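Bug #77: duplicate submission created two jobs. Keeping one. Sequence:
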Amino acid sequence: MTDHDEHAGPPGSATQVFVAHRNLLFTVAYEMLGSAADAEDVLQETWLRWADVNLAAVREERAYLVRIVTRQALDRLRALGRRKESYVGPWLPEPLLTAPDVAEDVELAESVSMAMLLVLETLQPTERAVFVLREVFELDYDEIADAVGRSPSAVRQIAYRARAHVAARRPRGTTSPAETRAALQAFQRAVETGELQSLLDVLAPDVVALSDGGGRRHALLRPVVGVDNVARLLAAGWWKQDADRSVELVQVNGGPGLLVRIDGEIDGVVAVRVENGYVTGAYHVRNPDKLARLGRETTVTR
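Kept job's structure:
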């Protein structure tokens, strides 16, 4: 199934129902996996199972489809965990260009942000599924229980644990899109001009810089922690200055981000975590496998 299926079938057909819910299903899978490519694979598997369903026996199509996509995503998530153990350097989520209006739904924008997806990476697969379905998509416990194969009472306990885990790690303090944009504009100036002071002024003392090259592009092999270390990294030329480089402010994962091009080709994306006006996390994705969707906007919804 493609993003825009021209052969959507008659209203009420399996294809028509699937297409109507496709963006929602993609968003569920992406939030569980942090990978658009894997989310697309899960959607293909979901479609194959949905196409075999007797629609006359389905009372609530949305819930039924979410149940299928959740089960497929859980299977994929467990397999991905094993793959990530051998990943070269830090693993970062696959970035998405998102429409500006995503930022208007504050909860959705936060749930697809790089910072939140990294927090969700620290949950066990079932905890992640329960958290996403309950906190982001507001499914009731009975529906979630069907999707993850646990009892409603067990799901309540898992949801409680997952909420506490995420609350302890999610960004603290309120940050406006304008503050995040200002921080990224300081990054942009640093990259374009080599002038670092305005960037250093917005870095938190305990800032963490991560970059993901996946072993295919030059990147940091481990996190760089602390403003002094990050400053030295930037002064040494985190971005080399010997190419035709352009840096564009775009919407990445529901918030402001930077799209970096070299000689006209997309080279990477920078997203930041901002708390109380200061950058506490900088995430630089260069792995070419994760840049494939940056030529177009991806619709996320709930």
